[in-house]
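User: Batch of two.

Assistant: Item 1 of 2:
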Amino acid sequence: MYPEQAPHVPAQRAVGVHQPTPLPPTVPVAAPVVPVQPGTAPAVASIVLPDGRVVTGYAINPVQPEPVAVKPAVSRTAVNVALGGAGFLAVCGGLVLLTSFIAALTAFITQLIILAAVIFGGWIAVQLFGPRGHRGGTTVNIRRAVFKRNDFHG
């Protein structure tokens, strides 16, 4: 799978090293002065560096700082207090609605219990006071005091 181990000869390549070439120093050349109407072209500024070189370029206007943000007419504290008050009122309103819902649910359950009691009570009243028809079983004649089933003779 692997080739046999053979001694390797290091590859020899021609290596060339490049050295940077220094540039000859430039001699400052005075630019010809051309009269320009003021206000038509930006002013050109020249600066002499400590080593004697002259740098010429356009003047850069200083960077204007960002304008300070205008404070709102209402303070943040007042806004926070107002929002807190509105939240408190919302919570109180929710609690009132919850209390009303619980009261209505309690009244509904109470009415269901009363309805069940009326229906069940009516059924019991019909059973007790309703017409008594022949229900089967042993007939008892109380006047003669004869109970056939219990063997009682009077």
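Item 2 of 2:
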Amino acid sequence: MPPSPVPDPRPLTGEPLALDLLNTRWIDAEGSHDLLDRPDGLALWLSTPAVREHLGSAQVPADRAALDHLLRVRGALDVLVATPGQPDPAALAALNEVLAYGRIRRSLDTDGRPGSAVEVEDASWSPAWHAAESWLRLMDDRPDRVRPCANDECVLHFYDVSKNGTRRWCSMAGCGNRAKAQRHYARHRTA
């Protein structure tokens, strides 16, 4: 799928695939948004660099089946990020069910170099499977670095790759700047 000519409207992109899927919902000055509630939203998400990096040249239909599979994973991830360290059995079961529809096949190429390929039962499972597998990698690597934005009104999540692990905001230009402006206003208002 070629890149979409429509720009991605989300305020935070470029996160690992599982978090990128979570971040298909966001809140801004105009209200709440869900990229996956529009027919063209799924096609747009499938064309983003984060998704294309995982799917490669695989052709994935932007159809109801693919959307339903993704929404199932997003719902499970919503529960898991809300309860870190206390995994919800239903959310775990939902992710495990999606993961059962695919596998990583390891092999050697003709030159003897190792390789791997993702195989899914049906192309409509591919985006959901990759998002669930991305969550596994995050939980295996540094689960403490998966964080919600510190802005209570923000619903975005990020993977903190800062050296000292102290990132607080989905974006310093957005939520971080608003927090600084609010602190500044509160200091000067009391003075």
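DSSP finds seven helices and six strands in the chain.
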